[in-house]
Amino acid sequence: MKIGCPKEIKPQEFRVGMTPNAAREAVNRGHVVAVETLAGVGSGFADADYVAAGATILATAEEVFAWAEMIVKVKEPQAMERARLREGQILFTYLHLAPDPEQTADLLKSGVTAIAYETVTDDRGGLPLLAPMSEVAGRLAPQVGAWTLQKANGGRGVLLGGVPGVLPAKVLVIGGGVVGTHAGKIAAGMGADVTVLDRSINRLRYLDDVFGGVFKSAYSDAATTMELARQADMIIGAVLIPGAAAPKLISRAQLSELKPGAALVDVAIDQGGCFETSHATTHQDPIYEVDGIMHYCVANMPGAVARTSTQALGNATMPFMLALADKGWKQACAEDKHLLAGLNTHAGKLTYAAVGVALGLPTISAAEALKI
């Protein structure tokens, strides 16, 4: 199969969809790989690294899209990239369609077979291609939140770990999944007083068993969430509903109940955000203020640590990418229900129910799409 990897063009996105190691694995299996020039430079991979792995370097994204049977990326295709997609082509990347009607419409119009990293599943009910970036984003959240809390950035001027004689900052993490667990662990490691909320009793038992001496946990009902939010210096939104829009956990009206200068870090911004006042920002201009509350809502947080993120993502996506290349998407998905769960669009049809609900669009099942 012809596998193409273009350079990411979303602002301040330094990751790349394929590492040289992944390119080498594909070439060793008899596939042909083409990478846009300088695609890997933001992650520390030179064109020469890809050439040494057996890949070809192409001068432009247009050439990559026109040549490739499968496009492997990191972020959702931007408008100019979507215009280059075509029916019969495979797109393998993060999509996050639920809050993005424009992208959804363009993918359906193109007829592309789009498989989303974030909806591929595993035997344990997890999301194995989302997990590595969730781990990175979770670990970054207290770090960027601590920066947001600095007075020069509009925050409360509170040091996360405090100092002898001065209490540490209070951090509330809403959501005890992969993001929330890593955020809680790192925030506690920085010396903060951390509470992690979740609605799953089993998950709370796990958190208490494993991290009971590191951070506290509590059940996430509306009253408890707001009681703890009022006390918090930093609130990290880490709630994910696979493939669907994130729930709004704190309304604009409730901002007046928070501490002035408190920091909201919305890790769910790719799925629309879990605070009503959230809107996507960039690494270049990451924070903004609403009613005295600072918001950090960068939509590609892991891009800040591009080399670590690219290597972690490449490790997770490589087996699926190779299966798609070796078998073609239909056979690969027919043989692997977890990969089939990643199918979001095919031949102009929307194939992920949660996206259809979020956008009010008709869907067919992924299994039906295999017959088209």
Descriptive overview:
- The chain has 372 residues and is of the alpha/beta class.
- The chain is built from 14 helices and 15 strands.
- It has helices spanning 20-28, 47-52, 61-67, 79-82, 101-110, 131-148, 178-189, 201-211, 222-231, 306-327, 329-335, 337-340, 353-359, 366-369; strands spanning 2-5, 32-36, 56-58, 70-72, 90-93, 113-116, 170-174, 193-198, 216-219, 234-237, 263-266, 287-290, 293-296, 343-346, 349-350.
- The strands form 2 sheets. Strands 3-2-1-4-5-6-14-15 form an 8-stranded mixed beta sheet, with helices on both faces.
- Helix 7 (178-189) links the parallel strand 7 and strand 8.
- Helix 6 (131-148) crosses helix 7 (178-189) and helix 10 crosses helix 11.
- The two termini are 21 Å apart.
Which strands sit side by side, in order, in the main sheet? 3-2-1-4-5-6-14-15
CATH architecture of the largest domain: 3-Layer(aba) Sandwich
Q: Measured on Cα atoms, how large is the radius of gyration?
A: 21 Å
Stretches where pLDDT is under 50 for at least 5 consecutive residues are none
What's the helix count? Answer: 14
Give the SSE order as H and E letters. Answer: EHEHEHEHEHEHEHEHEHEEEEHHHEEHH
Mean pLDDT: 96
Count of strand segments: 15
Most strands sheet: 8 strands, mixed
Brief overview:
With 372 residues, the protein is α/β, with parallel strands linked by helices. The protein contains 14 helices and 15 strands.
